[in-house]
C-alpha cells in the first residue's frame, strides 16, 4: 500500500509536468490499487473470524465480496480512463510528452510486475480469490504503464502530429483493464452464488469417502466454497442392517478422512442412507 501510494504520487506529478495523459491515467489506476489493497486486507481479516451465532458458516464470504468490489473498481477505472482520454483526443489540445516520463514508466513497470508475481504467489498458497484479484490489479497497472510507454515512445519519435498516440495508448490500456476486471468479477460472483468448485476437488472428496471401510456407495456429493475453505454435503450409503451407532461411527470416519486428505475442507455434513437390498 505504501509503495502504491508513492508510485501513484510520482506518476501523477510526472504526468502533469510531463504533459502525458496516459501517465496521469496510470496514476489514477495506481490510486485505485491503494484502495483495493485496503479492501482486500480488511476482507481477509473478516474472513478469518470464527463462526458465530449469526454466521454459523463463518465469514469466508467476505473474500469474494472484496473480490467483486475490486473487480468493479477496475471496470470503473477503465471507464474513467477511456472517457478522459477520448475527451483529450477530440478536444484538439496537443502536447508532446516529455522524454523523462518514459523513464518513469519503465521503472513503474518493473516494480508493478514484481508486485504482481509476489502477490500472485501468495494468492495461490491460500487459494484466495480476493488476493488473486488484488494481484491482477498490480498487473493491470503494469499493462497500463506499458501502453503509456509505447504511446509516449511513438509521440517522441514521431514528433509533431503524433501527440495523440499518448491518448490512444491510454484508451487501449483502459480496454485491457476492463477485460481484466470482467475476467476477475465472474469467479467472484460464481463463488457468491455457491457454484461448485472444480470437478477434481469433488472427485477427490468422493474417492476419499468411498475408501472408508463400511461405505458402500456415495450417492450425492455437493461442495461449495466459502472464502478459501470448502464445505461438503454428502449422502453415504451403508449396510441397511447395521446399527445406528455403527453408521454414526462410519460418518465420523468419512469426515475425518476427507479433512485429513484435503485440509481446505472446513466441514462435512453426512446423511447416512441404507443401500438397496440385493435380491
Question: What's the arrangement of secondary structure elements?
Answer:
Elements: H1 2-17, H2 21-47, H3 62-91, H4 100-126, H5 129-158, H6 165-192, H7 199-210, E1 217-226, E2 229-238, H8 244-261, E3 265-274
Parallel strand pairs: 2-3
Antiparallel strand pairs: 1-2
Helix pairs in contact: 1-2, 1-4, 2-3, 2-5, 2-6, 3-5, 3-6, 4-5, 5-6, 7-8
- Can you name the CATH architecture of the largest domain? Up-down Bundle
Query: In angstroms, what is the radius of gyration?
Result: 26 Å
Q: What share of residues is helical?
A: 55-70%
What is the CATH homologous superfamily assignment of the largest domain?
A: Cation efflux protein transmembrane domain
Mean pLDDT: 83
Distance between the termini: 68 Å
Structure description:
- There is one protein chain.
- With 279 residues, this protein is mostly helical.
- The chain folds into 2 domains: 2-192, Up-down Bundle (Alpha-lytic protease prodomain-like), CATH 1.20.1510.10; 199-274, Alpha-Beta Plaits (2-Layer Sandwich), CATH 3.30.70.1350.
- Helices cover 67% and strands 11% of the residues.
- It contains 8 helices and 3 strands.
- The chain has a 3-stranded mixed beta sheet, covered by helices on one side.
- Helix 2 runs antiparallel to helix 5.
- The longest helix has 30 residues, at 62-91.
- The model has no long low-confidence stretch (mean pLDDT 83).
Structural key phrases:
single chain; mainly alpha; 3 strands; 279 residues; three-stranded mixed β-sheet; Alpha-lytic protease prodomain-like; elongated; Alpha-Beta Plaits
Amino acid at each position: 500500500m505504501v509503495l502504491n501510494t508513492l508510485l501513484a504520487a510520482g506518476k501523477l506529478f510526472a504526468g502533469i509536468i510531463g504533459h502525458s495523459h496516459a501517465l496521469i491515467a496510470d496514476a489514477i489506476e495506481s490510486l485505485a490499487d491503494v484502495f483495493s489493497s485496503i479492501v482486500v486486507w480488511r476482507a481477509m481479516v473478516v474472513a478469518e473470524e470464527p463462526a458465530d451465532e449469526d454466521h454459523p458458516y463463518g465469514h469466508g464470504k467476505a473474500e469474494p465480496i472484496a473480490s467483486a468490489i475490486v473487480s468493479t473498481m477496475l471496470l470503473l477505472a477503465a471507464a474513467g480512463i477511456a472517457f478522459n482520454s477520448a475527451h483529450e483526443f477530440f478536444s484538439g489540445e496537443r502536447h508532446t510528452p516529455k522524454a523523462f516520463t518514459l523513464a518513469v514508466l519503465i521503472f513503474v513497470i518493473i516494480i508493478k510486475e514484481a508486485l504482481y508475481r509476489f502477490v500472485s504467489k501468495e494468492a495461490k498458497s491460500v487459494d484466495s480469490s480476493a488476493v488473486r484479484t488484488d494481484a491482477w490489479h498490480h498487473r493491470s497497472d503494469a499493462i497500463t504503464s506499458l501502453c503509456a510507454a509505447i504511446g509516449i515512445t511513438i509521440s517522441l519519435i514521431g514528433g509533431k502530429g503524433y501527440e495523440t498516440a499518448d491518448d490512444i495508448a491510454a484508451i487501449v490500456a483502459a480496454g485491457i483493464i476492463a477485460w481484466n476486471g470482467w475476467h476477475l468479477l465472474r469467479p467472484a460472483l460464481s463463488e457468491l452464488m455457491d457454484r461448485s468448485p472444480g470437478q477434481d476437488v469433488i472427485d477427490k472428496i468422493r474417492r476419499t469417502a468411498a475408501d472408508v471401510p463400511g461405505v458402500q456407495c456415495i450417492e450425492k456429493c455437493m461442495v461449495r466454497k466459502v472464502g478459501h475453505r470448502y464445505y461438503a454435503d454428502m449422502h453415504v450409503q451403508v449396510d441397511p442392517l447395521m446399527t445406528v451407532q455403527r453408521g454414526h461411527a462410519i460418518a465420523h470416519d468419512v469426515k475425518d478422512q476427507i479433512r485429513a486428505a484435503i485440509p481446505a475442507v472446513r466441514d462435512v455434513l453426512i446423511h447416512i442412507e441404507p443401500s438397496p437390498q440385493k435380491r
